[in-house]
Design brief:
Pfam families: Inositol_P. By secondary structure, the chain is α+β, with helices and mostly antiparallel strands. It folds into two domains: 2-134, Fructose-1,6-Bisphosphatase, subunit A, domain 1 (Fructose-1,6-Bisphosphatase, Chain A, domain 1, 2-Layer Sandwich); 147-231, D-Maltodextrin-Binding Protein, domain 2. It is built from six helices and 14 strands. α1 runs antiparallel to α2.
């Protein structure tokens, strides 16, 4: 696993460097209305090439290119720029995400100089330039006053909670700055969720896919309480748990 982690970190960091070096990209809309840029394609092609050189038997599926099926039974997921709208708008909160399905996850935020990395049984780490820290969720055990990031168009009413800025929700959750993240109506797909479970669970939290476009991530202690709140809201019903 450590070999895979070193590989994922090396490739994701190379991809992040490519994003930072990119000039003004061409931008167009995909069929689903979401933005894609020439930098997305360039970065995904780079990641695919590096994976093909290092682990040629593994499968690769990316957000912008067709799947390459492998023979090893392993599959890498590539989101070359997660948060393309932020990237296009010049906001620094986008990331380059690379995951070995179900096993490890690396998410690099190039403009912030931050990397999140986790592997099953390896824990979760946050790298800030030259500094490394162990990521750990909060120990908050009451919904009353819990700090929550809301992401997406469907924002449930959580009157007893403190709603906080959601620009870096995963980072804030795994480092204990917030206690829960609710992503709802955000058009989530497998690439948006590729890194989330491994990062959060290895930091001590829990993740549940409540329904197709509603995802709950918490510090674990509060998970059942928040899940009950979401299920009680109209239009939000229980689905397949991610954990």
């Amino acid at each position: 696993m450590w070999t895979d982690m070193r590989l994922a970190l090396r490739i994701a960091c190379r991809a992040a460097e490519r994003v930072l070096a990119a000039g003004t990209p061409d931008v167009w809309l995909k069929e689903d209305g979401r933005q894609v840029t020439s930098t997305d394609l360039e970065v995904e092609d780079l990641v695919r090439r590096l994976l093909a050189e290092a682990v040629p038997d593994d499968g690769v599926v990316g957000e912008e290119r067709p799947e390459r099926r492998g023979t090893s039974g392993r599959r890498w997921l590539v989101d070359p720029i997660s948060g393309t709208a932020d990237f296009v708008a010049g906001r620094p909160t986008y990331s380059v995400d690379l995951a070995l399905e179900g096993a490890l996850a690396v998410s690099v935020m190039p403009s912030l100089g931050i990397t999140m990395a986790a592997g099953r049984g390896m824990g979760c780490r946050v790298f800030r330039d030259e500094r490394e820290e162990t990521a750990r969720v909060s120990s908050t055990d009451s919904v009353e006053g819990a700090r929550v990031c809301l992401h997406g168009k469907k924002k449930p009413a959580l009157e007893q909670c403190v709603i906080v800025d959601g620009s870096t929700p995963v980072l804030d959750l795994i480092t204990g700055r917030v206690d829960a993240v609710v992503a709802a109506g955000a058009g989530l797909d497998e690439f948006d969720l590729a890194c989330l479970p491994v990062l959060v669970e290895e930091a001590g939290g829990r993740v549940t896919v409540v329904e197709e476009d509603v995802v709950l991530a918490t510090n674990g202690v509060l998970h059942d309480a928040f899940l009950a709140l979401l299920i009680a809201r109209p239009g939000v019903a229980p689905g397949t748990p991610g954990s």
